[in-house]
Specification:
- The complex is a heterodimer of chains A (about 260) and B (about 300).
- Chain A is of the alpha/beta class.
- Helix content of chain A is about 45%, strand content about 15%.
- Chain A contains 11 helices and 9 strands.
- Chain A has helices at about 25-40, 60-70, 75-85, 100-105, 105-115, 135-140, 155-160, 185-195, 210-220, 230-240, 245-260, and strands spanning about 15-20, 45, 90-95, 120, 145, 150, 170, 205, 225-230.
- In chain A, helix 1 (about 25-40) runs parallel beside helix 11, helix 4 (about 100-105) crosses helix 5 (about 105-115) and helix 9 (about 210-220) packs parallel to helix 11 (about 245-260).
- Helices cover about 40% and strands about 20% of the residues of chain B.
- In chain B, helix 1 links the parallel strand 1 (about 5-10) and strand 2 (about 30-35).
- Chain B starts with a strand and ends in a 7-residue tail after the last helix.
- Classes of the chains: A alpha/beta (about 260), B alpha/beta (about 300).
- The interface of A and B includes residues 73, 74 and 175 of A.
- The complex binds pyridoxal-5'-phosphate (PLP).
- Pyridoxal-5'-phosphate binds near residues 11, 135, 137 and 276 of chain B.
Chain lengths: ~260, ~300
């Protein structure tokens, strides 16, 4: 087991933030990570950009493009994490697409994750049924492979939940990432189905959450241990560029306050 | 399945027109995703799709070509699955799409086999077809795979040449990867970023290849060769002039191989070339390639 559990310890309702590394540049990414930690974020998902991010809406697609256009690479991101890891105490996970890991060499990629203090991996285009592609390597290096459960998972929920590690990423709504004004999914019944099969692994809800009110509502669902925000943060970064760290910090503070 | 709405991606627009036709016949709603670049170079098919009642959504992300149209159709499907069926147009994407499409396309080799045995009383020596995702090619190969004497040749789009970045020749320039729900060969950089590929042919302008082709390549059962824009355009013109058949620019890639190969063979050898589509849609692009503007 990795350090991910620390984010949820003592019944803490975790605030989890997603950012794309290298958007707009790696130096700003570092400052954003520090600023988020100072303002109470519990876990950070570091996105390694991919040319064709099929699970993302327009906001995060644009962030991927900005980062890649600026020449960010997997190796540069590994180095960035190496440089900050002594100061950053919270759990960190990578979110990226299967080909980024596969083409680097799964063993080399995941071994490096373990060396630089990455606690888990989220791979949105890796279905549960194909996880053997990376799971044995993740186990070898003690990096949690985080499973996603969506409103369409239905009769797959039981098996996904049973084998879940780190935390369970509950996808709030149909569709790709992006801010939503309303979340109508019957999340109670999804969480119940998960809890019936796995009472322990923390659950966090993501996709579409942007306001403190939404975060609060989601976190109050029985069995839910945290919320994840991505696009709302990326929007702040897109607006403020290299000046974004303070603005992101403010935002994180307001989201975390709603969860206490 | 209770679905009332069809979505599809399309490169050259052929699959989009087919999906729109089927939807019109079944009284279903139809939405086709097409790279913005392709809506311009395949304008005739865009018009046909609209005529058939489909909505065509130009995709502006990435290179604005087939790969981006596939990504956008997948995104749409995740947001609207209850009433919508995704009718994928090639032997690619997540299982079971490659086998569903292959089973339908296999009618090509079934008919080739039946007809050639009737007329020539023997199997062909070579069967060749163009490869974008690889549906017409796998369909052309399928019933010959066990006939070891039949050489199977897939023709990939080399664009401006396999030694340039403006190419879509996946087997020649790509390597193993995981994308669009399949593990196969892809054109990509050292970090696994998918390459912005190029071909004059919208239907072959895709950075991957169906997984069954990757397998046929690995076991050596089929051969995959690159054909440039220039070679394809020459073959396009040649068949038009000599046979009165204007082939799709995609199919012209396979034709180019046959034209090059035939002189090396004895006269009684048989090469079957799959002409996967007609070339009306390509006349204005080929004219433009030759420096002529026929649209005004
Ligand atoms: C006429 C024609 N042939 C071939 C293709 C390539 O597709 P596939 O490789 O799946 O046969 C296309 C794609 O649009 C096409 O329009």
């Amino acid at each position: 087991m990795s350090n991910i559990k620390n984010a949820f310890a003592n019944n803490n309702k975790a605030f989890i933030a997603f950012i794309t590394c290298g958007d707009p540049d790696l130096d700003t990414t570092k400052k954003i990570i520090y600023s988020m930690q100072n303002n109470g974020v519990d876990l950070i998902e570091l996105g390694i950009p991919f040319s064709d991010p099929t699970a993302e809406g327009v906001v995060i697609q644009a962030a991927n493009l900005r980062a890649l256009t600026n020449g960010v690479t997997t190796d540069k991101i590994f180095n960035m994490v190496r440089e900050i890891r002594n100061d950053i105490k919270i759990p960190l996970v990578f979110m990226t697409y299967a080909n980024v890991i596969f083409s680097y060499g799964a063993d080399k990629f995941i071994k490096t994750c373990s060396e630089i203090g990455i606690d888990g991996l989220i791979i949105p285009d890796l279905p549960f049924e194909e996880k053997e592609e990376f799971l044995p390597v993740c186990k070898k290096y003690n990096v949690d492979l985080i499973s996603m459960i969506a409103p369409t998972s239905e009769n797959r929920i039981a098996k996904i939940a049973k084998e879940a590690e780190g935390f369970i990423y509950i996808v709030s709504s149909l569709g790709v990432t992006g801010v939503r004004s309303e979340i109508k999914t019957d999340l109670n019944s999804i969480v119940n189905a998960i809890r019936k099969n796995n009472p322990d692994t923390p659950c966090a809800i993501g996709f579409g959450i942007s306001t403190p009110e939404q975060a609060k509502t989601m976190a109050q669902i029985p069995g839910v241990n945290g919320v994840i925000t991505g696009s709302a943060i990326i929007k702040i970064i897109a607006q403020h560029g290299t000046n974004a760290p303070d603005f992101v910090g403010e935002y994180v503070k307001s989201m975390k306050a709603a969860l206490i | 399945m209770g679905k009332t709405r069809l979505i599809a991606e399309t490169g050259a627009g052929q699959h989009g027109v087919a999906a729109a036709t089927a939807a019109a016949l079944m009284d279903m709603q139809c939405v086709v995703f097409m790279g913005i670049e392709d809506t311009q170079r395949q304008a005739l098919n865009v018009y046909k799709m609209k005529l058939l009642g489909a909505e065509v959504i130009p995709v502006e992300t990435g290179t604005g070509t087939l790969k981006d149209a596939v990504s956008e159709a997948m995104r749409e499907w995740t947001s609207r699955i209850a009433d919508t069926h995704y009718c994928l147009g090639s032997v690619m994407g997540p299982h079971p799409f490659p086998v569903i499409v292959r089973d339908f396309q296999a009618v090509i080799s079934r008919e080739i086999k039946e007809q050639i045995l009737q007329r020539e009383n023997k199997l062909p020596d070579i069967v060749t077809a163009c490869v974008g995702g690889g549906s017409n090619a796998i369909g052309s190969f399928w019933h010959f795979i066990k006939d070891e004497s039949v050489k199977l040749v897939g023709c990939e789009a080399a664009g401006k040449g396999v030694d340039t970045f403006e190419t879509a020749a996946t087997i020649t320039t790509g390597r193993l990867g995981i994308f669009h729900g399949m593990k196969s060969y892809f054109c990509q950089d050292e970090y696994g970023q998918i390459a912005p590929v190029y071909s004059i042919s919208a239907g072959l302008d895709y950075p991957g290849i169906g997984p069954e082709h990757a397998y046929l390549h690995d076991i050596g059962r089929a051969e995959y060769i690159p054909v440039t824009d220039e070679e394809a355009v020459c073959a396009f013109e040649y068949l038009s002039r000599t046979e009165g058949i204007i082939p799709a620019i995609e199919s012209a890639h396979a034709l180019s191989y046959a034209i090059k190969k035939a002189p090396e063979l004895d006269k009684d050898k048989i090469i079957v070339v799959t002409i996967s589509g007609r070339g009306d849609k390509d006349c204005s692009s080929v004219a433009k390639y030759r420096g002529e503007n026929i649209n005004e």
